[in-house]
Amino acid sequence: MSVRLFGVPVRVHPLLWPAVALALYMREGEYLAYVTLSVLLHELSHVAVARGLRISVSELELMPFGGAARMEPQWMLRPAQMALVALAGPLCNLVLIVVAAALCEWGLLAGRPAAVIIKVNLAVMAFNLLPALPLDGGRLLCGLLSLRIRPQRALTIGVWLGRLLGGGLLLIALIG
Question: Looking at the annotation, which residues are catalytic?
Fold first, then answer.
C-alpha cells in the first residue's frame, strides 16, 4: 500500500509498528496520536517550504522517534534555502502550540488535550532545534557556518555535533 501526501510518497518505518503496539499496550495511544500528528505536520512543513523553493522532495518517512523529509542533496542548497527549509518544521510546532493555547483559552479545546498538544510540540520543536545533524538545528547551523567557512567543513562540524549528541543521549539512557 502506497500513501502520498501532496504528491510525496509517505513511508512508514517498519519499527514504527512495534512502537505503536507498545504505546497501545501501555495505554498511551492518545499521546502517540498527538506525537504522530505533530511529527507529520512538522515534516509536511519542510515539504511545503522545499517545494515552494523548487526543491525536489523524494519521500517523507515516519519513524518511531520522528520523521524525515528526504529531498535533493541538501548540501547543494544555498545557505538561505537550507535555513528556510530547516526552520519550517519547528515553526509549524510553534504555530501548533499557539493554536492549542488559544483554542483552550477560548474554551474550544479542553485543558488536558491542549496541555498534551503543547507539551508534545514543545518537545518536538526543542529537540529539533538542537544544533546537531541530522536535526533541523544542525541543518540551520551548517547553513549559517557555510556563510563563513567551506560547506564541507560546516558539514563535518554538524556531523561531529550529531555524534556527540547521540553519544550523550545514549549515555543518559544507560545511566537513567
Answer: 43
121, exposed or middle or buried, with CB in 10 Å at 0-12, 13-18, 19+? Answer: buried
Mean pLDDT of the chain: 90
Exposure of 19 in the CB half-sphere (CA atoms within 13 A): 15
User: Which grid coordinates belong to 147?
Assistant: 556563510
pLDDT for the residue 2: 67
**CA neighbor of 75 nearest in space, from 3, 133, 121:** 133
Residue 25 makes CB contacts below 8 A (sequence gap 6+) with none
- Lookup: cell for 24: 497501545
Q: Which of 43, 24, 42 is nearest to 32 (CA)?
A: 24
Amino acid at 123: A
Q: Looking at residue 74, what DSSP letter applies? A: G
Contact 150, 158 (CB under 8 A): no
Of the chain, the end-to-end C-alpha distance in Å amounts to: 39
Whole-model pTM: value is 0.88
Taking only the tens place, the pLDDT of each residue in 69-88 is 998 777 678 888 888 999 99
